[in-house]
Amino acid sequence: MQTITGLYDNYDDARAVVNTLEDAGISSANISIVGRDSKTGETYAGEGAATGAGLGAVVGGAGGLLAGLGMLAIPGVGPVVAAGWLVSTVAGAAAGAVAGGAAGGIIGSLTDTGVDEDQAHVYAEGLRRGSTLVSVRVDEDQADLARAIINESTPVDIEARRAMYREEGWERFDETSPGFTDDEVAKERKRLREYRQQMP
Q1: pLDDT tens per residue, range 53-96
Q2: Bigger pLDDT: 162 or 96?
Q3: Percentage with pLDDT > 90 across the chain
Q4: Within 10 Å of residue 71's Cβ, how many Cβ atoms?
Q5: From residue 150, how far is each of 9, 18, 27, 54, 167 by CA, in Å?
Q6: Using CA atoms, how far apart are residues 33 and 133, in angstroms rounded to an integer?
Q7: How many structural domains comprise the chain?
Q8: Residue 136's closest CA among 39, 24, 47?
């Protein structure tokens, strides 16, 4: 199986990608979404999520994979809404880290699925700053279709985003960093919109 991943600055764009993947016949069991929905925020985090491993329900009107959205707190990222196969991997890694066992968190969860480690750090930092990750596992015969759907919705250019972060002094995702607050996420999204508008 191949893992194909896209990062989106707009949560609704990521949700639309999930719906399109499902409509194209890719099983919900092979799709994951992890991100910061501006309409949920930290109020859904709950006691379990504060431990870094809890997953609590988030009620929504969507079907398919999105009907199973729950709340998860990821070390270094904070509370996110999440659904799909990546959730159990991240939750397990977070629980292990909290219990003093296996470490790795979001970075380990991504690299274990075949994501390049340097890219995984950018994806994780993007999540921390309010972006949303869509990841799909597919067989060879569906890989081109999944890649086309993910790229069609204009995901973040990971190389450009890494360069932007590094210009600001960032080096790697740090699980010990505090997650962004809702206000910080809103400011970051505004800054990214302005940054994109200035690009040629």
Answers
A1: 344 444 344 568 888 888 888 888 888 889 998 887 776 554 44
A2: 162
A3: 47
A4: 22
A5: 13, 9, 15, 28, 27
A6: 6
A7: 1
A8: 24
Side by side, the strands of the sheet bearing 31-35 are 2-8, 132-138, 31-35, 78-84, 70-74, 55-57
What single letter denotes the amino acid at residue 89? T
Question: pLDDT grade, residue 98 (50/70/90)?
Answer: very low
Closest CA to 3 of 133, 117, 126, 110: 110
Single pTM value for the model:
0.81
In Å, how far from its chain's centre is CA 199? 24
In three-state secondary structure terms, 16 is: helix
Identity of the amino acid at 155? P
Residue 186, pLDDT above cutoff 70: yes
- What size, in residues, is the chain? 200
- The domain containing residue 145 runs over which residues? 2-198
Q: What secondary structure letter does DSSP report for 39?
A: T
Q: How far apart are the C-alpha atoms of 191 and 198, rounded to whole Å?
A: 11
Q: Identify the H or E element spanning 163.
A: helix 158-167
First-to-last CA distance in the chain?
Answer: 37
**Contact criterion met (CB below 8 Å) for 127 and 135:** no
Residues 6+ apart with CB under 8 A from 167: none
Q: CA 31 from chain center: how many Å?
A: 12
